[in-house]
Amino acid sequence: MPEPQLTPEVFDRAIVAIALTAGPEHRLVYRNDAFGDLFGPRPVGVPIREVFTEPGVDRFIETLDLVRADGTARRVTTPRTLETSDEDDPEDHRHFVYSCSPVSSRFGPGVLVSAIDTTAEVHSVQRAERLSADRLHALERYEALLSAVSQLVWLNLPDGTMAELVPGWEELTGHPWRDTMDEAWFELIHPRDRDGLARRWTEAEAGEPSMFEHTFRVRTASGEYRHVASRAVPIVRDGRLVEWIGATSDIEDRWRNRMRERMLARAVAVTEATRPEDAFAAVADLVVPELTDACTVFVLAEREQPARSGQPRRPGGPRATRIASTARPGLPPLPPLRQQSFLLGPAARRAVDERAPVLLTFPAGRVPSGVVPEESSRWLDRAGATSLTLLPIVLDGTTVALAAAAGCGDTPPPGRADIELLQEVLQRAQLPLRQTLELQRTRHAALVLQRALLTAPPTVPGAGLVARYQPGNRAAEVGGDWYDAFVLPDGSLALTIGDVAGHDLTAATTMGQLRSMLRSIAYNRTHLHTPADALTGLDAAADGLGVAAFATAVHLHLARSGEGDGGWQAAWSNAGHPPPLLLPAAGPPRFLDAEEADVPLCVAPAEPRRTHRARIAPGDTVLLYTDGLVEVPGENLAAGLDRLAAAADRARGLPLPDLCDRLLAEVPDARDDIALIAFRAAPGAPAGPAAVAPDSAAGPAAV
């Protein structure tokens, strides 16, 4: 029976690649469409060696020879690769497996070749292998990175258990790693940071987990605390939190550098202070609450400050006065500053003498005696203080003040680094403190000079005369304001009010010179000499002697009217000063101003000056004052003058001293110095010259 012959055309539409070879040279006699899709166009009718010219075709031909020789089918299941034109792109290569079976067709004995495309499967496996390799390399790099950084890396599971991936906790704290955040773990956290740390972790876990970030202090193996920063991210799979991966690093040096920067920025408040108490209060504010719970500054009495090196201490021991205090929120209210001094105890004296910090620790509320005043000690008891750091404030080699920094409640005593930072902050404030104290010394000298010059006015029969001087809070008791009152040789009374520009020793000195020169000029002229003549002479003398300073003044002469009713005649000249206020016994107040104002002193000495005149009736009051009584920053001068007139009108029935005090009390913003002198003609006083009396019963000057 003849052997059945294969009809290859039955494979035309097969999805598997089919080819048929014939003869010993294995000529390609048939291929279907799927074969062309897999291998591309291949010539038909030529030996298979000419059909496939790719490397490795010899193994294929050997397989064909074996099948033809022994009539046994063979399968090649290891994927073969058909390289494309882009040899560098493995994704572009084609892969297949094939089988060879002996057949007989109309072309004679041959081999049927069937090939299955495995490109997708091979590429999938290759991608998986590459991904696995990439992940392995990433893991190796991550592990190498973690071993290179100085961070603790940890893992936290939803059930609260923790694992340390990169160790370092024991090296930092001196305690083994704990598997949970239990009480023993929290004991290593600074007491003031525990609640915040627990709250922040709870917030990160709540709802949809979010990144955890927090900075807190940890007690190290040395017993001191250091700042660390922790950051953790949640790992969520299929919408479920599976773990937290976190890292903790020591940031103490970075924290201290940032703290120093903030302290320097806040030190501007010290430079803006004009009074020592404000400057030292700003110093105390610098360190609370960031570096300590409370800070009090005690200034040493200047006459009792320790002598410089090599000189004996003055008898009595050093004394100090509490000048500034501040405390963090949550502590008891601080006692008021009473300017009470106390004798320094041994610990405080050691800090002052050695110019070095002294740390005192004690049971809660049991402050050693003599360290601080009794009033401060009672406050520390109420605040539960457990430590006190005494830090000397040294300027130019002399301890001028002592800062006491207190740790209260559960705050542990400061470590060495904490004390060093406290000391550094205080040292940074030395320059502005020095400037403030120097300014205060200068102001004190100016005040002494000014008060020495502002003498009490004379007693004038038939009239009341009261002078007042009130230092401004801005200028800290220093200015160029002055008043003067004296009787001239002809029996008339001379009154002067003046103001030299500036608020320093120079202004006070210039004020004294101008006041003395005007006194001499006015006193040594005849009775025909007018107030305008006196101011003109003062202008010429100041110009000729080089006493050049911008100043304003009103110079007024008062003489009995001679009408026998107790009235007076007033003549005055105004050099750019606020006008005198006349408060009549009956009728509204009015200012004694002129249509044309004369220029201030030391501006144009040759400019003529005018004398103005008015009658002062019995019971009338004339008020001379400086601009501090009427000027308010940001307000028009006219508003201040109206306010003064209204206040004088309301107080017209008061005795002259009370009237002056009431006007001073009603100044809305007493930033500037105020000098004023008030004259009141007594009703029904007998006629006659004004007599000089050494006492000041009619109205002492408040200086």
Low-pLDDT runs: 303-315, 687-703
Strand content: 25-35%
Report the CATH architecture of the largest domain: 4-Layer Sandwich
Taking the sheet with the most strands, its summary is:
6 strands, antiparallel
Radius of gyration: 51 Å
TL;DR of this structure?
This protein is 31% helix and 28% strand. The protein has 703 residues and is α+β, with helices and mostly antiparallel strands.
Annotation keywords:
Beta-Lactamase; disordered C terminus; 703 residues; alpha+beta
Task: Tell me what you see in this structure.
The protein has 18 helices and 26 strands. It has 703 residues and is α+β, with helices and mostly antiparallel strands. The chain has 4 domains: 8-117, Beta-Lactamase, CATH 3.30.450.20; 149-250, PAS domain (Beta-Lactamase, 2-Layer Sandwich); 269-442, GAF domain (Beta-Lactamase, 2-Layer Sandwich), CATH 3.30.450; 454-681, Phosphatase 2c, domain 1 (4-Layer Sandwich). Strands 13-12-11-16-15-14 form a 6-stranded antiparallel sheet, sandwiched between helices. Strands 2-1-5-4-3 form a 5-stranded antiparallel sheet. The chain has a 5-stranded antiparallel sheet with strand order 7-6-10-9-8, with helices on both faces. Helix 14 packs parallel to helix 15 (505-523) and helix 15 (505-523) crosses helix 16 (531-544). The longest helix is centred in the N-terminal third of the chain and has 30 residues, at 119-148. It starts with 16 loop residues before the first strand and ends in a 22-residue tail after the last strand. Residues 303-315 and 687-703 have low confidence and may be disordered.
